[in-house]
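Troubleshooting: if your tokenizer reports a length mismatch, compare against these two reference records.
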Amino acid sequence: MDKKLTLSEKGKIPPQALDFENAVLGAMLIDSSALVTAMDILRAEFFYLPKNEAVFKAMKSLHDSNFPIDLITVSEKLKKLNLIDVAGGQMAIVKLSQEVASGANIQYHSRIIQQQYLKREVIKLSSAAISKAYQDDQDVFELLDFVGQRVDAINDVVSVGYSSDTWYDAMTALPARIEYLTNNEGKITGLPTGLDALDRHFSGWQPTDFIVIGADSGMGKTALAMEFILAPAKQGTAVGMFSMEMSVQQLAIRATAVESNFHMNQLMRTGFEKPEYFETLNILVSEMRDYPIHIDDKPALTVPEMKRKARALKRKHNIKLLVIDFLQMFSGDKEMRINVGEAARECKNLAKELNIPVIGLSQISREVRKSKYFLPKKYHLKEASAIEEAADIIGMLYRPSYYGYEYIDARELYDDILGLQEGENAALLVEKNRNGSMGNVGLHYIENKTKFTNGVDFTVPPNHEDVPY
């Protein structure tokens, strides 16, 4: 006798979890704590049955308006939304409340509903992608962007409602954290910045922080960023960079200048005066080419592209730092203010999601030219309000000599305003530091090598103009 086929064996049906849908809605009706947990994870479209989607919409509307949720209020809200018939009538709501005795397993059940929804979304995306791929006039890069954006949207759903630690866990771990800091003997707790003064001020770059470095054009933002990238890479830590202004080749030249005493002019224009310099260069290249640095130099990235590629860098290479050069270069179909605001918010979101520091370089407005000594402030950042809101740290890079102010005729600026010490001719003006102190951090800038070094500790080797590293 032939085995009787089930419905799913006769034909494919969309992924669903109807029992869990009923159980979750029932728990939300009788348990206020379960209601809050489910609201953090679920959206109305996650539900497979239209009647369950309608009930959830009514509950969410009540919850958002701070109204109590019970059989009567949900039924009345469904009537006001003209969804009572879709929901199956008042008796269907009563039946839901009888599905469970408590909301003890609400998070697990909600995740099951979420996962089934994600499966349905993958099926829809795959079907749409296949259909588009068969069209002769379909541009392949537009197709890839279409798929990528929708995959990003699906990935965004996965992280909804997750918390890495409970409050109990965080408080329990606190004494051990303080003990670690107490016994740390001044060592940095984050990623090295490449510059001692910055390491001391920030204790290295910390995971989940979004750091913004702003400066006038030509001030040295990218040169400083290369210090940030090279320091962890030399220790074998993978780093990523989105460079929308400079090519990978240009950045490789700048990195070589940072790691050596070669002049930028030698590396970019004239070549070497002495053949023996090639021996030094070859040794340096053999070391640096194995640094785990991953640079994407595609111009005019969109924010969804940036998110997708950043997640891929984390997944494939486990990057511990991401640098973006620079925030105003993101493209989009909206005005710059909205594009920059979206980019800044997503940079902060990525820092939290990937648990890494994200550094965004930023242009400043011409308004800085109206301030005394052209000193930059955080409000000089282009589209400053959106960036300031998202950033954990804002540092404004400043070199007095860039504007023609030398120590001999601007001692007030060097000594009193910036507080620079001997050997320091540049500063990072810390305008915001959510978890630490403000103030100015003195640095030293070598212009013909376009690199920053430690200020007070800076020493010039003999005949440094002629001797490569």
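Reference record two:
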Amino acid sequence: MSLTGQSITIVGAGPTGTLLAILLQRRGLHVSLYEARPDPRDAGPASGRSINLALADRGLHALGRAGVLDKIQASLMPMRGRLVHHPDGTSLLQPYGQRPSEINHSVSRHGLNQVLVEIAAALPRVTIHFEHRLEDLDITAGVATIRDLKKGLVRRVTIRPLIATDGAGSQVRRRLSALGLITAREEDLDHGYKELSIPACPGGVALKSDALHIWPRGNYMLIALPNTDGSFTATLFLPNHGDLSFESLNSPQAVDRFLSDHFADVRPLMPNCLQEFFDHPTGFLGTVYADSWHRAGLVALVGDAAHAIVPFHGQGMNCCFEDCLQFDEGVARHSSWEALFREFESIRKPNTDAIAAMALENYLEMRERVADAKFQLQQSLALELERRHPERFIPRYSMVMFHHEIPYQVARERGLVQSELLNELTTHTTTLSDVDWELAAREIERRLTPLS
């Protein structure tokens, strides 16, 4: 029996749920989408939680396959590299790659969600119910209890099947875990984040608009991503507790002193930062791990509901969109939901585990290593080795961000080998001219198989 023409319930109408609905509708499925929050077309973003997203090759590929990329293109801000701001006021641009196409894009999560909802809502086989909250899940009966928050009514929805795209705090995942049907854990990072803003500068922009700005300071950092109106969305990442932490910054004077001392060049560009610091919530950062993503062919977890990761590799949304594409492709290969769910998890879980690990590793890189001279030398060396050996050596960052055809697991495995090689080649080297290029060529030939 084909899955085409069947009905499916999706809980969670964020970017992942809406993109999945668009893809499955194109397969001929009938999709009912439930979302606890108001329609994003009618409401603004949640205050202090509208962190910009980085859209890279994997996400662009998925949006293109869904036929919606042209609707989103105008809202994307290209970022060609990291602009690192040092404490002494100097800065250095570190390009993401060496090709014109190797760029990332800053996009508003709320704005992206608005566009995807608008597209999904106009499709003939998609129905979206906003302000409808999942309250219970009965796997035995195959029924979900959903409350209409506007009318106060409760409806029982048959789940054959139900797909949970309800994010890192997934109620579906937590319910499955509470019932003992899966084992899941949420590992919080001991750092949090606070969203601040850099308004558009009259007559121009306050900062270079085609870069991700980073102020690395060892155990904490500030970043800023460009918006289409000339403003920047800034995010402060800081320990939650300790001598210098969100806990210790408990007065406007303390916050102003901290920002002025450690981010002197950007503090004047954030006139509202003190009010924002106390008005906006401190966001939590963490990783979700689940031993199983599905149950009995009735329920499956997709996206952050299954494997939320920290944001430091800019891959959270891209990974979720790649999930959607993999899930959609599985519909054409299977005649039962259970077989599809099983294959989906077997393909995706090794890769989502890999990007979760790389995202955690990238936090140290962003807040500390990008300012280190040895790291900068190794980054330059990696790009040069890619120029000389493009079929074998691609920097790990480039594999993750610019090559959707390379699975995350492969990128991580090859990245470990390449990191060892870079360390060896720069042990007694301070400039590229000192590198032993013959040794590099031999070791690349020996350790790295061709990618194509």
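Descriptive notes for reference record two:
- The chain has a mean pLDDT of 95.
- The domain at 7-46+53-74+109-186+285-362 is CATH 3.50.50.60 (FAD/NAD(P)-binding domain).
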